[in-house]
């Protein structure tokens, strides 16, 4: 059965008490996703691993949403490829189309559209961090459910971020940011601070987008070696672990 497709022009007031946990995702076509992982992986393997990341991230979110005032979504691109998500997501997930040109424009538009759907808050989450601790998602929901305005931000160790959460579509965090650089997080924090908006920072984590970070994931899931920058246990990511086990075997 296809997932519900949300339309921003159709506001559902019953969603006001919920925080949307929305994964920003491309439809998983070989050659279109996780291309920086090839090499060491083939384009087909990279796309297959991307599917594992989607399965793990959405499963993690579904478990958090089941015990919090939250709901899981996929903010997807391109329009027309909705069917490529069939069977990959928990059954209660919904889809909402991305719009905009540059990355910052797409993030702001996603926040605007999801809030227009009726949600009281939204977290935009990357699809490259399958082992983000569930506690980080729970903390984001709890902070955004408190009275008053604020932005929640989860830093990645490469200088970017894996999550940004908002209660209102503030444009400042998405304007004049040098995307895909090691200064994204610092620039975003500066923009939020300059705008006078309260900032809550989540635990540091990491994205998997090249051979080096793939090794970090391999160490975490197969070698049970936590990332060196945290003592917090990550999510078990069973789909990604099974993929890596089939690819590399049990040894490090």
UniProtKB/TrEMBL annotation:
Q: What is the lineage of its organism?
A: Bacteria, Pseudomonadati, Acidobacteriota, Terriglobia, Terriglobales
Q: Name one Pfam family in it.
A: DUF2064
This protein is called what?
Glycosyltransferase
NCBIfam families per the UniProt record, alphabetical: glyco_like_cofC
Source species of the chain: Granulicella mallensis
